């Protein structure tokens, strides 16, 4: 029989990120319950996507400011596209 892994006193940065994701999900859905697999797939992935989208917004704003991208429209329907059709300057 396998022994359970020892629990360290100090959580790793990944464990802290996971703790935050679980607690953020439960703050929004206080009646939620799920299996380990469900928590990993739905709660954690949902939180990760939200963080990635926030980071992506900042990246797109920087690329717009640098003049590498143009934007047509506003909000969720905005379209982003290359300013310069010469692709030689794409490697940043």
Structural class: mainly alpha
What's the pLDDT, averaged over the residues?
85
H/I helix tally: 2
Our Rg estimate from Cα atoms comes to 20 Å
> What percent of the residues sit in helical stretches (DSSP H or I)?
40-55%
Q: Give me the side-by-side strand order of the main sheet.
A: 1-2
What is the terminal separation in angstroms? 52 Å
Walk me through the structure.
There is one protein chain. The radius of gyration is 20 Å and the shape is elongated. The termini are far apart. The protein is mainly alpha-helical. Strands 1-2 form a two-stranded antiparallel ribbon. It has a domain at 13-66. It is built from 2 helices and 2 strands; from the N terminus they run H-H-E-E. 51% of the residues lie in helices and 9% in strands.
Features:
two-stranded antiparallel sheet; 2 helices; about 90 residues; elongated; about 50% helix; 2 strands; mainly alpha
In short:
The protein is mainly alpha-helical. Helices cover 51% and strands 9% of the residues. It is elongated.
Topology record:
Elements: H1 13-28, H2 36-66, E1 69-72, E2 79-82
Antiparallel strand pairs: 1-2
């Amino acid at each position: 029989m396998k022994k359970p892994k020892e629990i360290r006193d100090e959580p790793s940065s990944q464990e802290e990120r996971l703790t935050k994701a679980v607690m953020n999900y439960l703050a929004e859905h206080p009646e939620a319950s799920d299996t380990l697999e469900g928590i990993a797939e739905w709660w954690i992935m949902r939180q990760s996507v939200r963080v990635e989208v926030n980071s992506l917004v900042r990246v797109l704003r920087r690329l717009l400011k640098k003049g590498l991208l143009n934007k047509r429209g506003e909000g969720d329907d905005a379209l982003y596209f290359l300013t310069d059709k010469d692709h030689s300057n794409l490697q940043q």
